[in-house]
Specification:
- This protein is mostly beta strands and about 190 residues long.
- It has one domain (about 5-185).
- About 15% of the residues lie in helices and about 40% in strands.
- It has helices spanning about 100-110, 115-130, and strands at about 5, 15-20, 20-25, 30-40, 40-50, 60, 80-85, 90-95, 130-135, 145-150, 160, 165-170, 180-185.
- Strands 2-3-4-5 form a four-stranded antiparallel β-sheet, with no helix packed on it. A four-stranded antiparallel β-sheet has the order 7-8-9-10, with no helix packed on it. A three-stranded antiparallel β-sheet has the order 11-12-13, with no helix packed on it.
- β4 and β5 (about 40-50) form a beta hairpin.
- α1 (about 100-110) runs antiparallel to α2.
- The longest helix is centred in the middle third of the chain and has 14 residues, at about 115-130.
- The chain is globular.
- The termini are far apart.
Length: about 190
């Protein structure tokens, strides 16, 4: 029981199945792997090293940070969060990760009883993180662009359906709203 490791959330897979191909990325590893299926036999077809601005490296954790029988999720680390087909495009939703030193500072503030100050620092760090999606041509797998998430929407994710993305409006902090607003985002 010695050594180092990663939290399970650091390698949570994101994937999409399109026309007998599986597109998969393992959490904080900035790679897209494409597997072809012939019958029930998968074979690796393509691996793409993703170039994501400001995408941080996963922190290697000391063994004493792990507890047998427990799973820890760390939402501050870099991750490929989802993969979607939208029309002729493949979108890779990414979260570049928070500055680990500042995250540790916020955690220490919380542990010392300064919850309000820690929360403000976490919110500031969250705003600074590069969040968006890479756009690939589905047929050629050529990267076409990197798009930041639109302003004013929930940054945790989005839904892809048909030829559009669907985002939920960020809730107002000043006024309680008894409705949900959904935005349709089309790629052209």
């Amino acid at each position: 029981k010695n050594g180092k490791g990663y939290f399970e959330s650091d390698y949570t897979p994101a994937y999409e199945w399109v026309s007998e191909k599986l597109y998969i990325s393992l959490g904080g590893e900035p790679k897209l792997r494409v597997y072809k299926f012939s019958g029930m036999e998968p074979s690796l077809d393509t691996t793409i090293n993703l170039k994501i601005p400001e995408f941080r490296e996963l922190p290697i954790r000391e063994r004493n940070e792990f507890a047998e029988g427990n799973m820890t999720a760390d939402g501050s680390t870099p991750a490929i969060r989802n993969i979607h087909q939208v029309g002729d495009y493949l979108l890779i939703h990414h979260y570049a990760g928070m500055d680990p030193e500042k995250t540790e500072e916020a955690g220490e503030l919380w542990q010392s009883g300064n919850e309000e100050e820690a929360e403000l620092l976490f919110e500031k760090l969250q705003e600074e993180v590069n969040k968006g999606f890479l756009i690939f041509d589905l047929k050629t797998l050529q990267m076409l662009g990197n798009v930041n998430l639109p302003e004013g929407v929930e940054s945790g994710g989005f839904l892809a359906a048909g030829n559009a993305l669907w985002f939920q409006k960020e809730p107002s902090e000043e006024v309680e709203e008894d409705f949900v607003r959904i935005y349709k985002y089309e790629l052209r």
